Amino acid sequence: MIEIAPSVIAADLADLVGAARAAEAGGADLLHVDVMDGHFVPNLTLGPPVVAALARHTRLPLDVHLMVERPDDLLGAYLDAGSTRVAIHWEAARHLDRTLSAIRAGGARAGVAVNPATPVEILADVVHACDFVLLMSVNPGFAGQPFLPRVLDKTSRLASWLTELGAAATIELDGGIGAGNIGAAARAGARTFVAGSSVYGAADPAAAIRLLRRTAEEALA
User: Most buried in the list 12, 84, 146, 195, measured by CB within 10 Å?
Assistant: First the structure.
């Protein structure tokens, strides 16, 4: 099943309710929230009060991506704010297995994110504890970056590997996703797609979401 997760970091930050409503109108499956701390990545974005406000104003599940240096220190606040799914970075987590367990204990689905230069094979001992693996297809920190094509091979390797292991985790792709590459990404094995600029930079965000879904589904047909 294809899931489209518009990323509100690319929307008008003064109108996040409008961004959420546009995502709902387009039939989005999730609303992606990029959390950046100014240390793990060179940008500073949305705190727990913003996530809590979004949770009050949308029916969409919140897909929260913690791009932070110390995820354990912030995790509780984001879970309490209403996160439905939480991804933490392998590169930042000191005790990854414990943190994934804490996410699930907090009532959310647990994911591990990896940067473009991090090999997926490093997740060998933790994929069975994940609900999803988030592959960064840009270097994290800013919206609007171009898609890194080499991540398609990485996606294929991960998809094959998960099948071999019998792991239930799905693959989420984040960064530079648009109608021109979502089909190839779906064929490579990704099923959840974070789309920022291609949605909120479009004249009609709802139509852009529908186009992304249709393109991905046609690629798999």
Answer: 195
pLDDT of residue 202: 98
174 is catalytic: yes
The catalytic position among 29, 34, 37, 63 is 34
Mean pLDDT across the chain, nearest whole number?
96
Q: What is the pLDDT of residue 96?
A: 95
DSSP label at residue 98: H
As a whole number of angstroms, the distance between CA 129 and CA 99 comes to 10
**Cα dist from 133 to 77, 136, 150, 202, whole Å:** 22, 10, 17, 27
28: left (phi over 0), alpha (psi -120 to 50) or beta: beta
Banded model confidence at residue 142, pLDDT cuts 50, 70, 90: confident
Q: Two tokens at 98?
A: 């414990």
> What residue segments make up the domains of the chain, in order of their start?
3-220
* Mean pLDDT confidence for 160-189: 96
Which H or E element spans position 35? strand 31-36
What span, in angstroms and rounded, lies between the C-alpha atoms of 1 and 191?
6
The domain made up of 3-220 has a fold known as: TIM Barrel (3.20.20)
Is 80 one of the catalytic residues?
no
pLDDT at 186 over 90: yes
